[in-house]
């Protein structure tokens, strides 16, 4: 997990990264009501062209990260071209995120 944060951290500085709290919650919260980040936080990430927030959410084994994004109506990429949220959900240690994408009627066989 530390390696993941190093890859996603702001300039490689995990402790000082603005995005660290957002990524940490998307990856580790077990329920949507545990989140302290807001839709505005995600919008700031998007304005800075950091789209990997959805990829991190798709790696959360509880599915809470993607549920948080969906419940807050935050758009994320689910195309099957290149690396997308669907690809990260597929490598997650549980199938919770794939089930969420299927329930959202995402075509995983495109």
Report the principal-axis shape: globular
Q: Span from first to last CA?
A: 30 Å
Total of helices: 7
Largest sheet: none
What would the average pLDDT be, to the nearest integer?
A: 78
The overall strand count is: 0
SSE layout:
Layout (H helix, E strand, L loop, with lengths): L1 H7 L11 H9 L10 H9 L5 H6 L5 H8 L13 H7 L4 H8 L7
Helix pairs in contact: 2-5
Task: Give structural attributes.
110 residues; mainly alpha; 7 helices; 49% helix
Concise account of the structure shown:
With 110 residues, the chain is an all-alpha fold. Helices cover 49% and strands 0% of the residues.
Give a written overview of the molecule:
The protein contains seven helices and no strands. The model has no long low-confidence stretch (mean pLDDT 78). It has helices at 2-8, 20-28, 39-47, 53-58, 64-71, 85-91, 96-103. With 110 residues, the protein is an all-alpha fold. The protein is globular. Helix 2 (20-28) crosses helix 5.
